[in-house]
Amino acid sequence: MANIFSPGSSSLFSLLLMIVLPISSSGSHVHAFSIEEATIRDIQRAFKHSRLTSRKLVEFYIQEISKLNPVLRGVIEVNPDALYQADLADKERRTRARGSLSCLHGIPILLKDSIATKDKLNTTAGSFALLGSVVRRDAGVVKKLRKAGAIILGKASMSEWSSFRSLTAPEGWSARGGQGKNPYVLTADPCGSSSGSAISVASNMVAVSLGTETDGSILCPASANSVVGIKPTVGLTSSAGVIPISHRQDTIGPICRTVSDAVYVLDAIAGLDYNDKATGKASRHIPYGGYKQFLKPHGLKGKRLGIVRNPFFDFPIGSALTQAFESHFNTLREQGAVLVDNLEIANVNVILNYTTSGEAIALLAELKLSLNVYLKELVSSPVRSLADVIAFNQNFSNLEMIKEFPQDIFLAAEATNGIGDIQKDALESLANLSKNGFEKLMKENKLDAMVTTIADTVPVLAIGGFPGISVPAGYDKEGVPFGICFGGLKGKEPKLNEIAYGFEHATKIRKPPSVNPGKSKENA
User: Do the Cβ atoms of 208 and 107 come closer than 8 Å?
Assistant: First the structure.
């Protein structure tokens, strides 16, 4: 296991929280460049002007991890080869090697610990049961990132087994990673299961990360940590090599600090992967020229946006959330959007109930089937089935904290026996709820997107494999962030990108957290 506190360079500790480097953008004009909060475009501009190297960038991030991670627990491992990859990227840039002009070339990226890498890093979903297991190949999205020249900085922590082991385990907790903390308010929920990906980006331990989502695991932590998360249409990005819950709902997407950065990453990871059949159909949605062409400051003009107030905006009258979202609605109108208000989704209360909708029944069976296949395909592993994982947890109950957080979901999944009549009925129910609910709402009202809060709305998008983007929308009176979500029909990422970028450009709400490691350690 890589040691997350090994900097790899003695000069690293001379770096300050903020590296300020002179950079010229117009010949004679010189201004300060800060790695903290820097976007991909900022970093690439610094590379171009020889004011920053990938090695310095990786050293900075490792330093921030060594300082902040003991409190925030956003990173589970640092890649011991990260500095080697950085040196290679610097060499390619100097020699103008093929691919060195890619926007992700030389950019460090953290991957959720459920995304496989064929290197010295572990892929464990936060569990000791998979520590030391060997994957057959890089995950499909990792292969695309390497092709784009990205540096795999390490693995982000996560809710263990993507929050699918225990009903009582807190969001952001895993046996390997410990309890992830919200960098804005340490006692606040960081949300999950891609908690570490969002925590690390928000706190400037990295600029770019990948998360995965089955039902809310990108959109919710992005909202809770004041960053941008894109949940792509299922199949738009490959789920091959990712520890699964449900191939019907699983999707992999970027978590970054800006919409533009997230879109650059989406461009790199979207597309066909022969190891994931779902990408064959979904990749047809990718527009010629990619997604970055839809980063338009005035992208809201003419867009039809639907608002379902009940139950998604059912806040107390006069509350801070009510005031914030009413202000955002006015901003959307001022930017040229057409708001279609007071809409209703048929059977929305059923959709939002995991039991009555059939989602829980379907996911339990799908988890056992898909996880067993994943584990059997590993080159080597201490566990080869869900039953083996359950036994491991029982044998190492102290290590996995089984007394505190029982494995009730795992036990329920293990009790299933494939896709029988009950599961087929559940799947049919989900398809009908989606078709007669969200799809009907969008088509009948000719909407480009539905605008919602995050907390209770994610099942609407999850059960149908629909895309969504979360953008920072504000902070409550305690300083806890919240986001706004734009959701659309399958393949409508171009419209969602325009809308999200337009909103971000008009509001510029995100601000970095103030984390004091010395003070925080006492309260962590």
Answer: yes
Query: Hey, is 39 helix, strand or coil?
Result: coil
Calculate the CA dihedral of residues 251, 125, 199, 315 and round it to 10 degrees. 60
pLDDT of residue 27: 37
- pLDDT tens-digit readout, 21-79: 433 333 333 355 799 999 999 999 999 999 999 999 999 999 999 999 999 999 999 99
Cα distances (angstroms) measured from residue 468 to each of 195, 214, 427? 17, 12, 22
Question: Using N-to-C axis directions, what is the helix angle for 493-507 and 259-269, rounded to 10°?
Answer: 160
Element (H, E) at 61: helix 54-72
Q: Note the residue count of the chain.
A: 524
d(CA 254, CA 376) in angstroms, rounded, equals 28
Bridge-based pairing of strands 481-487 and 468-475 is: antiparallel
Bridge partner list, 212:
252
Of 54, 159, 193, 470, the active-site residue reads 193
Active site residue 112: yes
143's enclosing H/E stretch is helix 140-147
Annotated active-site residue 292? The verdict is no
Distance of alpha carbon 69 from alpha carbon 127, whole angstroms: 18
pTM of the model: 0.93
Q: Which of 56, 67, 112, 368 is catalytic?
A: 112
Active-site entry in 200, 217, 370, 434: 217
325 Cβ contact list (under 8 Å, min separation 6): 313, 315, 453, 473, 484
